[in-house]
Amino acid sequence: MGGPSRRGNAVLVAATYLTVLAVLVLPVLLVMVEALRTGIMAAWRSLLDPDALSAIRLTLVVTLVATLVNTAGGIMAAWLVTKYRFRGRGALVALIELPISVSPVIAGLVWLLLFGRQGWWGDWLDRHNIQIAFATPGILLATLFVTFPYVARTLMPFMEQQGREAEEAAFLLGAGFWRTLWRVTLPDARWALLSGILLTTARGIGEFGAVSVVSGHIPGLTETMPLHIETLYNGYQTVAAFTMAALLALIAMATVLLRSFLEHDFRKASS
């Protein structure tokens, strides 16, 4: 009994590692190799191109703002749905999770329907010289939508497990809402919060679908890193495209590794 079982486990482990290597590791290695095909200096010069620098800058700024906004919104949403019971709570949880199930392209089309020149508010925005679609505000709105659930969803299980006893005791001792939140609730959930922030960051940096719809693909103005990769590749600038893709992959891997490191520390501290 034990022998076949061990052999079966060994086959399963080997198959899992082979799948991970073939599906996840090998493509990243191929991207790195292609980026360095003509040398590291050529790759470096492609990143110093003004359009490339603009794409990197826009991606980082939009991701930073979206992460800050959705961190605050996610904390409030998680607090509301875990600490209180009210009519419509289930519907609110479903709305929080909506961006995970809805195609990002649909989200981008919704923003165009609202803020595009032919959209519901397009005439009013045009009269007041306000541009949202095909500009940075539209890219930010799209990124906010697709990255909203991550902080809330990582905090909700921890806040649910906490209960309300500690917060109620703090309120009885005279602590206000913000003091209770920062001194009582969030310290116990800090690892979940950091994990949600890192997931939000990684998702925002790599977002393509919704941003592609609302950005207009204007090089040097409204192209983020993923959009710039597509522009370079379609223009047969393969080295520059793979170099930007390699940079994007490195940022994503660093974010995931940091998240894994924090989770490992959290489990070690809890044991």
Automatic annotation (TrEMBL):
One of its GO terms (cellular component) is plasma membrane. CDD domains: TM_PBP2 (cd06261). It is found in: Cell membrane. Its main location: membrane. One of its GO terms (molecular function) is ABC-type sulfate transporter activity. The keyword DNA damage does not apply. PROSITE patterns: ABC_TM1 (PS50928). Residues 56-263 form the ABC transmembrane type-1 domain. The keyword Membrane applies. The chain crosses the membrane at residues 12-36, 56-80, 92-114, 134-152, 238-258. Part of the ABC transporter complex CysAWTP (TC 3.A.1.6.1) involved in sulfate/thiosulfate import. Probably responsible for the translocation of the substrate across the membrane. The complex is composed of two ATP-binding proteins (CysA), two transmembrane proteins (CysT and CysW) and a solute-binding protein (CysP). This is Sulfate ABC transporter permease subunit CysW. The lineage of its organism: Bacteria, Pseudomonadati, Pseudomonadota, Alphaproteobacteria, Acetobacterales. The gene is cysW.
